[in-house]
Design brief:
The structure is a homodimer. In chain A, helix 13 crosses helix 14. An 8-stranded parallel β-barrel of chain A has the order 8-9-10-11-12-13-14-15, surrounded by 6 helices. Chain A folds into 2 domains: 323 residues, TIM Barrel (Alpha-Beta Barrel), CATH 3.20.20.540; 138 residues, no CATH class. Chain A starts with 28 loop residues before the first strand and ends in a 6-residue tail after the last helix. In chain A, strand 12, helix 12 and strand 13 form a beta-alpha-beta unit. By secondary structure, the first copy, chain A, is α/β, with parallel strands linked by helices. At the A-B interface, helix 9, helix 12, helix 13, helix 14 and helix 15 of A face helix 9, helix 12, helix 13, helix 14 and helix 15 of B.
């Protein structure tokens, strides 16, 4: 994020602040989890699948037991009792020689890791113990490969108790891009708020690109390892040994999470033939072809426990891929997708038994009305493992604008149950995203994630919105832009029409500014706040290089006009120039009003 | 819309086509209205306000009666019996000398007007009789001033039984724009799918601008007449005579609907003082000031029946303004807003008694979780009069991107009950929209309206999505772009990376194309369809001027690169050039694959 959210304390956000709630009855709520813990959740529309009554505690490794007990016990080898964040005491027994490696394993032993502490710092509404307990329940993951932690990784979490996260995809393809460009996109995605980044390279030097991205990233890195598994060999020759070698290699490089399409089974393929667009997942289609060619089950499914052992060694988190996700509205929520989702639930249980952290990948094209159902079915079948959703797009007919069609679906998905949103850029379906597409995709998804967090009432998330509203009420443009997610764009658009900060804007002009008039009518809470008081009109600073570029790309001003905005000084835009004067370039609001009245239109509101 | 939706028949849209619905349980439904008619509606989340049990039939003028009867009656003066679209017979009695003027009055007499017939043509899932009955119930309006009908107006409807509509605002302000520019924006908004346009001019020659917009528009035109009422006079001097004169003047010009802020009452102002940003409606703030200065009630409220008489004379439709709409998330769904909404319900009843068509304006900033409640409260308090909603924005901190923040809210609003969506452009809060902003605003809102219609299952609305999915499955790029809402942008983005139409795209490249691989695995329904069969790779036509401009504004290619794309021929991009070859500029897919394999990366999937 370009600006850190001001930390203004925990302010529950889903009722109107400073007012009596009146007859407003609907609120999202904090739903107690099956074990007395809590997550943020939307109320269920009638007909939604019930949440699973199980958590990762129900899928412990062989030889483990757990129960809630009344008193703290002895700490003999192979046994621990610890106080959970809901004040209950949990006793866990385990093989005496067991050493925890993954965050899940530590959490099961009641250990608060340094990564959990760091996560709690970043999620100011959570304690480290709550983070631990959410991880132990399987409802939260901390994707942090032990190797990546030795580089620059700043640990973060994904789960329903925490703020919604955004992933940005990048990676070279055989026809476009290279390592240097991808690292540049990585830094750019981090700047624009990506919480994790997936390197989906299928072209160029995959190994080099992956290494460079891991070394340069502060955010967790995910990959889809099947891509590198089949380069240089025939798909037919893929087998479990190659799969395990390849996973081990990438895990040793420091990849934090792997998308593994182990849920696409032979028996699911019959459901694909009636679809309009078959299989659109690359991993899914490759494995489907492999199964047909061999007449055998998906080797990632049959070899799941061996894969889990590689994952555990480095604490790589599963992102169990949805190889049968729908590729268009027509295929959404169909039998292929739902059959696979059920298998993903089974794989989740098996991974938890091996101590590996799990998230589940979710669909990419879903009509708006089906999103809640999809989210709540996952909560049931996969026991609340964090749901990591691509979009979803809510219409298919707007290629070039799919960052928008999908961020609508993403907002609803995050509100109804998704924990991480995989961005979609304007280039989706058309080509590989360029740098500006990465920015547009990130921003659309920060909008989705933030809006959902506000709607869910995650403490503190609406504070920045309220601060900006106060700045707006006070007509304090500088603060307004400072609080904006993309201050340069906001400033550039404002200055395009009116490069002076007055107590009105070019949208309505001085006399028509409702906020200005409203200020005369009543005293606002914020109006009394000296921090937000608008002082006097002043010419904005000349456009920065970045703002200049934004207006240039926008293409509605000529280069000369932009140059003028960029190089302006008080003299250059002053009273001497007729054109400038109608843009209220005077520093004095009264003079601006006077000019407007005399030159443009007569209007007296007082 | 730039392309007419292909009329492919009525295909109910909210289940997966061509598949067994499987365990998918949640569907939006067609809810029978209180009188046995129907509208499209989302299922109610628990706690939502019940729909009103009344319709416009409960608010007939004095001297009228109505009842459902068993047999067709005589047609004596002052009495009519007609068969409704649900097959029931309705008897209506009325003063014998009554002559209907408005669409509502005609509908009450069972008359199907030419405008209703035209609306039924445009809403292929509705009959003219259904349109009439929806208008009679007050759940639908046809904003068609009798004067505007003599120009180029093409009648349309707004209501829950029909497709969701989009309004684009324009109009000069004292600091920006003029008549010519506004007419140009009007044509541009029509091109990009605006269903109605509001002229919100507060600067320039208002009368001339309004006249020009009415004469040039095929879509209904709305205005906020208070703007012109107070130009050239002091707000304090405003009175009912001036109001009526001004309305009569604009009605005679041909304006189709008026926003009138009659719901802001003296007793509501106490609720404003605790808000973060007070009153953000221009009309609302002006009337509030008037009431405080005079110590009197809102003259538009007290003079409502006289205003209705002016409206009726030309069949101008009310858009009853929400002068107390929230200006930030913090103020959403507060007492000020809800108290006014209750008054809007009262004004609706009073307008219906005068035979005038009504829609209700709705809020601009609402957290995502509160949208359904807002929509369903209107359905209760205003008896289902069409809800015309601005956005709403679901977060405040993304100025410069408010077409996106608001189209998220607009999709949810349309799904839960809004009938028309007032667009928001990227310039919202910052300045007056320019031509490109109008386009971006329109497209974001066509996305919202269309996505909601698909989610509601309005027959036929998903057909174009499915056609595009089929074209995508067949890797038929030409059809893909033809079916896109903005073909030039889609084509330009595609050609930016790969200006040849092959059986893959630059996003994944040949070997990684899941759709291509998937085609090898199973036979798709669409794969067998000769209409969609992909034939052979071919170089796309050179970029059009419009596509060239799109890439230029995009700013990620140099002018030289764009020029190359724009002026290319087979020779210019052929094998001779090393750079071009990596972009697969060959017309032959096998050669492209070969180059890719040898030059970029080795991969064999077969």
């Amino acid at each position: 994020m370009s600006h850190k959210l001001p930390n203004l304390g925990n302010n529950p956000s889903s009722t109107a602040a400073g007012t009596t709630p009146g007859s407003f009855a609907k609120k999202s709520h904090i739903a107690p989890g099956p074990e007395g813990r809590w997550t943020f959740a939307s109320p269920d529309t009638p007909g939604m699948p019930e949440p699973s009554s199980k958590t990762a505690w129900d899928f412990l490794p062989d030889g483990w037991t757990t129960e809630i007990v009344d008193q703290e016990g002895s700490s003999k080898p192979g046994e621990t009792v610890f106080r959970q964040s809901d004040e209950t005491l949990r006793k866990v027994t385990f093989p005496a020689d067991f050493k925890p490696i993954t965050q899940l394993e530590s959490a099961r032993l009641g250990i608060v890791t340094p990564e959990m502490k760091r996560v709690a710092e970043r999620e100011s509404h959570l304690t480290a113990e709550q983070v631990r307990d959410e991880v132990a329940s399987g409802r939260m993951v901390i994707p942090a490969n032990r190797v990546h932690l030795e580089h620059q990784l700043d640990p973060m979490c994904i789960g329903r108790a925490s703020k919604t996260k955004v992933n940005a995809n990048m990676g070279a393809s055989p026809v476009s891009s290279g390592t240097h460009e991808e690292v540049e996109k990585l830094k750019w995605a981090e700047k624009w708020g990506a919480d994790t980044v997936m390197d989906l390279s299928t072209g160029g030097d995959l190994d080099e690109c992956r290494q460079a991205i891991i070394e340069n990233s502060r955010v967790p890195i995910g990959t889809v390892p099947i891509y590198s598994m089949i380069i240089g060999r025939k798909l037919y020759d893929l087998n479990l040994d190659i799969i395990l070698d390849s996973l081990r290699h990438q895990a040793a490089q420091g990849v934090d999470y792997f998308t593994i399409h182990a849920g696409v089974l032979q028996e699911h393929l019959q459901y694909v033939k009636d679809r309009l667009i078959g299989i659109v997942s690359r991993g899914g289609s490759l494995l489907a072809k492999w199964m047909i060619d061999h007449g055998e089950q998906n080797p990632m499914y049959t070899g799941w426990e061996q894969i889990c052992e590689v994952m555990r060694e480095y604490d790589v988190t599963f992102s169990i891929g949805d190889g049968l996700r729908p590729g268009g509205l027509a295929d959404a929520t169909d039998q292929a997708q739902l059959a696979e989702l059920s298998t993903l639930g089974e794989l989740t249980e098996r991974a938890w038994r091996k101590g590996v952290q799990v998230m589940i990948e979710g669909p990419g094209h879903v009509p708006f009305d089906q999103i809640e159902y999809n989210m709540k079915l996952e909560r049931q079948l996969c026991h609340g493992a964090p749901f990591y959703v691509l979009g979803p797009l809510v219409t298919d007919i707007f290629p070039g604008y799919d960052h928008i069609t999908s961020c609508i679906g993403a907002t609803s998905a995050a509100y109804h149950g998704a924990s991480m949103l995989c961005y979609v850029t304007p280039k989706e379906h058309l080509g590989l995203p360029k740098k500006d597409d990465v920015k547009q995709g990130c921003i659309a998804y920060k909008i989705a994630a933030h809006s959902a967090d506000v709607a869910l009432g995650i403490p503190g998330t609406r504070d920045r919105d309220d601060e900006l509203t106060k700045a707006r009420a006070a007509l304090n443009w500088e603060k307004h832009f400072e609080l904006s997610f993309d201050p340069d764009t906001a400033r550039a658009y404002h200055d395009e029409d009116l490069d002076v900060d007055t107590d009105f804007c070019a949208m309505c002009g001085h006399d028509w500014c409702s906020v200005r008039i409203s200020k005369e009518i009543v005293e606002f809470a914020s109006g009394k706040d000296d921090d937000y008081k608008w002082d006097r009109a002043k010419v904005s600073a000349a456009l920065s290089e970045e703002q200049k570029e934004i207006l240039a790309k926008r293409g509605v001003l000529s280069p000369e006009e932009i140059h003028k905005l960029a190089s302006k000084t008080k003299n250059a835009v002053g009273a001497a120039e007729k054109k400038a004067s109608c843009h209220s370039d005077y520093t004095d609001a009264e003079t601006a009003q006077q000019i407007q009245n005399s030159e443009i239109v007569e209007l007296k509101v007082d």
